[in-house]
Amino acid sequence: MSQDTNPPPIPKKDASPEYELEKEMTEKLKTAHMDIGRELSKVIVGQKEVVEQLLIALLSGGHCLLTGAPGLAKTLLVSTLAKVFDLSFHRIQFTPDLMPSDITGTEILEENTEGHRELVFSKGPIFANMILADEINRTPPKTQAALLEAMQEKQVSVAGTSLELEKPFFVLATQNPIEMEGTYPLPEAQLDRFMFNVVIDYLDEDDEVSVVQRTTGAGGDPVEQIFSGEDLLKCHDVVRRVPIAEDVVRYAVRLASASRPGRDTATDFVNEWVNWGAGTRAAQNLALGGKTRALLEGRSHVTYDDIRAMAAPVLRHRILVNYRAEAEGITVGKVIEKLIEDTPEKGAAVTA
Question: Where do the domains of the chain lie, and which CATH numbers do they carry?
Fold first, then answer.
């Protein structure tokens, strides 16, 4: 069957309020993309791919896991994003003694104006639009579970009562991949709630020189707000309205399912190197990220290239390689590259 690379026809829409909102936000995204990059560049040097992936996640409404060594400006990047989008921001330093109530808040005994004592709930740092969970793998599973409820349900449960969180709500969590002693690896269920795993690497020499010059000189220009929280909520709605052809959806599904060992369609290298593959959320996030990427590039449809561009950040924390792969120097990144290479855009998955 011949492969048609042309995008699917986009149906004409009436000038309904929903269509007008979609048109308005699409135009705003096209013009704001460069503006957001310009504002971030006032503080962040280089890391264009990292910034792009974080921007896609925020506009899609997803959470992000940031993996990188200390001193790579992860905290600065997240706090600057909060300023650009005019979001309330809280940083939580995760430690082995951190309790769930330290995140969600707790009830305290207060005396009211009539002299009677009553329990009053004092909100924790989770009540903000953007949360930086610093070194999330350093806290026990009990505390991680409290964060998991907030990420998935957009609420916290305290003293038998469920309290909704502010919208929009994002968790950007950092992990140090070097020092693993005394850490509590995140369970697969929690890892799966993160839309992307964004890897932050060291800068090249020119960018690092620029960082040193900026940080040891006079203060730079202040960061200006480009979007608002209300704009972000509108974007989340518009992103989901972006058309995507069934063939492109099937490609995203095949790419995710190709990572699962022990299946009839699994290739030899997946059966040999992979212990656990990506679930359905991976295909959902491939499609959602592809829609956002298309909008940022001024297109109203999703292409196969959009899906491939999302493969690494979506799959790298959802694929678990085995000891044989580690012994042979096979990383998750190499597995993803092989998956992209061997998964056809159309037709049945390649079999060994």
Answer: 15-241 (3.40.50.300), 243-347 (1.10.8.80)
